[in-house]
Every structure is written in C-alpha cells, then in structure tokens.
Specification:
The chain is elongated and about 60 Å long. Strands 1-4-3-2-5-6 form a 6-stranded mixed β-sheet, with helices on both faces. The longest helix has 19 residues, at 160-178. A hairpin with an 8-residue loop joins strand 2 and strand 3. It has 2 domains: 2-178, Nucleotidyltransferase, domain 5 (2-Layer Sandwich); 201-273, no CATH class. With 283 residues, it is α/β, with parallel strands linked by helices. The chain is built from 11 helices and 6 strands. Helix 2 crosses helix 7 (160-178). The chain starts with a strand and ends in a 10-residue tail after the last helix. The protein has helices spanning 44-48, 60-72, 85-93, 100-117, 133-143, 155-158, 160-178, 201-209, 228-235, 252-257, 269-273; strands at 2-3, 16-23, 32-40, 76-83, 122-128, 148-152. It comes from Klebsormidium nitens (Green alga). Its EC number is 3.1.26.4. Pfam families: RNase_HII (PF01351).
Length: 283
C-alpha cells in the first residue's frame, strides 16, 4: 500500500474526514487501484476550492498536477491500494471464489482501517459506491461504529474529498501502467494495448496476439475477465486435468479456462502466479 510517510501531523487528532474512490475496475489489463484522501474537518471548505474533480473529467496533465499538489500539501493525507491483475483473477477463480465487489469492499475497508491505525480521528467517511449503496453503507457502519458513513453513486462528483481520492487512484494506476515491466522472461510484448478496456479494438487485438497456447496471458492481463475466455478456448491447447474423469460432461472450453485454478508449492513463479499445476498423462 502506498501513501504519505513520515511523522503523523498534529491534525490527525482533530475530527477528520476521508474519501474513497477507485480506478481501473473495468479494464482487462493492469491493476485496480483504490485511493483515499483525508484531512481535518476544519479543512473541508478549503479542499472544496482546490479544483479536485472526478478524475475522468480531467486531462492527464491536470490530474498529475493536482496529485503532486496533494502530495506536497501537509494538511492532506492519502493512501493507495494497488491490486494487481493476477491477484484479482486468482481471487475470482480460486475454489472459494471472491467477487469483484467483495474485493473492492475489502480494499476500501483496508484503507479506512489503515487511517485509523495511523491515529487519524475519523468522524466522516465518503465512499463512491460499488453495488447497492444502502447495503454497502450499512456494512461499513457496522464495521466501523462511531464513524458516520456516506456511500453514494457518483460520489467523486458530489464530495471534494472523494474527488481528491479519485485523483489519487487514477494517477497511481496510470503511473503503474506506464512503468509496467513484464515479469515473463524470454518473451517480448508490445505496449500498444490501447485503453485496456474489453471493448477497445486495440486491446482485443493485443490480447489475441499475446496469448501463449500453453501458458496463457502475461501477468498484466486479468485472465478471469470474460474477454479472455473465448481467446483461451480458441487459441490455447486443451489441458487434461487429473479430475477431468470426475466430470466428463464438462466442455472443452471450460477445461481450458480451469487451467488457471490450481497450483502447487515450490514451483517456478511463472506457474504459481498463473495457478498452474503439473499433471501426469497416461497414453
């Protein structure tokens, strides 16, 4: 988790507000990032005048400028939780599957807990919703009694502290993509992958060109996304797993996709990161 470091300022003891937003929930490439920003309640009006806005409405240059200003401002705290593509997919495809909403909720609660653990006297928290806002708000209120929770749709355009969190999340994700170093050895991947969103033709072309018939996609790719499954079925070799005999009715494409769902300890990181397990085939 990234964030402001150093000695905690005195204003942490004052009543404080915190906003939370995410970036990169929908793309098939790269991390999903949850960001938060927080400040003393007495600074609420000043934050409203700092030109923070929904990051999607700002140019990249403006977002970068605002983020650097936020980092230099000692009256504002911030943190970011970067959840990488392979971690998202591993959680969503493991035997006890975890939904993207559940992953998102856990990340948001982790940011709130992180601020409280630093000694921030949180009295109000504002969150851009994932799922039903009323249920989400109730869950947060039960998890953090004594903190007034406000969960809304489009919170990044309603509350300046959430707008600031939106800047944190978006810039952190953009920088992570620009600085991305492919961990796969001996393979050259182009970087012309477009926006990373499933509907982007450039992204779809890049995915089709960079799927290995045995090892699948590089670690930049969220291989659990629906965009990837037909490519695996079409372009990857079939894999016979030891437990295939238990369910002979399972389709070929389903068996191919399930290649990602098992792993063993002590194996090369390439296999472990993709949840691949070696099996023995008797001819």
């Amino acid at each position: 988790m990234e964030g402001r470091t150093g000695e905690e300022p005195a204003w942490f003891n004052e009543p404080c507000i915190l906003g939370i937003d995410e970036a990169g929930r929908g793309p098939v490439l790269g991390p999903m990032v949850y960001g938060c920003a927080f400040c003393a309640l007495s600074q609420k009006a000043r934050i409203a005048g700092m030109e923070f806005a929904d990051s999607k409405t700002l140019t990249e240059e403006k977002r970068e400028t605002l983020f650097e200003a936020l980092k230099e401002d000692t009256s504002i705290g911030w943190a970011a939780d970067v959840i990488h593509a392979k971690d998202l997919s591993s959680q969503m495809l493991r035997s006890e599957k975890k939904s993207l909403n559940a992953i998102s909720h856990d990340s948001a609660m982790g940011l709130i807990r992180g601020a409280l653990d630093k000694g921030v006297n949180l009295v109000e928290v504002y969150v851009d919703t994932v799922g039903d806002p009323e249920k989400y708000e109730q869950r947060l209120s039960e998890k953090f009694p004594g903190v007034r929770m406000t969960v809304r749709k489009k919170a990044d355009s309603l509350f300046p502290i959430v707008s600031a969190a939106s800047i944190v999340a978006k810039v952190t994700r953009d920088r992570a993509l620009r600085a991305w170093v492919f961990e796969e050895r001996g393979v050259e991947y182009g970087r012309q992958f477009g926006s990373g969103y499933p509907a982007d033709p450039e992204t779809k072309t890049w995915l089709a060109a960079n799927v290995d018939p045995v090892f699948g996609f590089p670690s930049l790719v969220r291989f659990s996304w629906g965009t990837c499954k037909p490519l695996v079925a079409k372009l990857c070799v079939d894999v016979q797993w030891e437990n295939d005999d238990e369910d002979e009715s399972e389709s070929t494409s389903a068996r191919k996709n399930r290649r990602y769902e098992s792993a063993a300890p002590g194996r090369h990181s390439y296999f472990k990161s993709r949840q691949l397990q070696q099996v023995t085939t008797h001819l």
